[in-house]
Design brief:
CATH architecture of the largest domain: 3-Layer(aba) Sandwich
Largest sheet: 6 strands, parallel
Order of helices and strands: EHHHHEHEHEHEE
CATH superfamily of the largest domain: HAD superfamily/HAD-like
Mean pLDDT: 95
CATH topology of the largest domain: Rossmann fold
Strand content: 5-15%
Number of domains: 2
Distance between the termini: 21 Å
Low-confidence stretches: none
Number of strands: 6
Length: 210
């Protein structure tokens, strides 16, 4: 595959943020997180997370705003995963199309992507942009359409089974799983390959980003 496109998940792929999300949630909703482990929430949207831990619907709008605000305040470049900034800079240099897909609210996505200091507005499908998010294929189908990507020339980097299922159901043939500290419950059975570093992805062998 000489020509290719790249779609990145964000939380857990661009930023190693899953523990930060959980810490903020515990601080703001301590009554609902006493018996919850962060691994239980991997891949869920914020709305799904609040439903899962039992936050009443009438309280969710207020607590969502608080979570987003505190998360953004605590976010820093130290959360970027190894090599991701150099890889994306190389993709830009080689004019390789790429985009971002996430279940998170758009505001959170933009804060995370902002750490990359891109020279142009990112192609983004957030949890706010589709009626059905992962594990449904809708967000990946939306990105393929947004960027006019040939599905057969597209690869995805994900950290969750939900995301891998979504990408696979969208017909994307190359779906790489990139684990992190909170990925222990993920199976990655549908992944093309489990990688330990971005350099393990064969499509990246011809671009120098190390």
């Amino acid at each position: 595959m000489d020509r290719f496109n790249v779609i990145f998940d964000i939380d857990g792929v661009i930023v190693d943020s899953e523990q930060l999300h959980f810490d903020v949630l515990c601080d703001l909703a301590p009554d609902y997180t006493q018996h919850i482990q962060p691994q239980q929430l991997i891949g869920l949207s914020l709305a799904e997370t609040l439903d899962y831990i039992g936050v009443p619907v009438q309280q969710q709008k207020e607590i969502t705003a608080q979570i987003v605000s505190v998360y953004k305040d605590k976010l820093s470049k130290s959360y970027l995963r190894p090599g991701i900034s150099r890889l994306i800079a190389a993709l830009q240099q080689h004019r390789i199309p790429f985009g971002f897909v996430s279940t998170a609210p758009r505001e959170v996505c933009l804060a995370n992507i902002g750490l990359l200091e891109l020279s142009e507005s990112p192609a983004l499908i957030s949890g706010d942009d589709v009626a059905r998010t992962k594990p449904h294929p809708d967000p990946y189908l939306a990105m393929l359409k947004l960027k006019s990507m040939d599905v057969h020339q597209t690869l995805v980097i994900e950290d969750t089974d939900l995301g891998i299922t979504a990408a696979t159901q969208a017909g994307i043939p190359y779906v790489y799983a990139w684990p992190h500290a909170l990925s222990v419950a993920e199976q990655y059975q549908q992944a093309t390959r489990i990688i330990g570093a971005l350099t393990d992805i064969p499509q990246f062998s011809k671009i120098n980003f190390v």
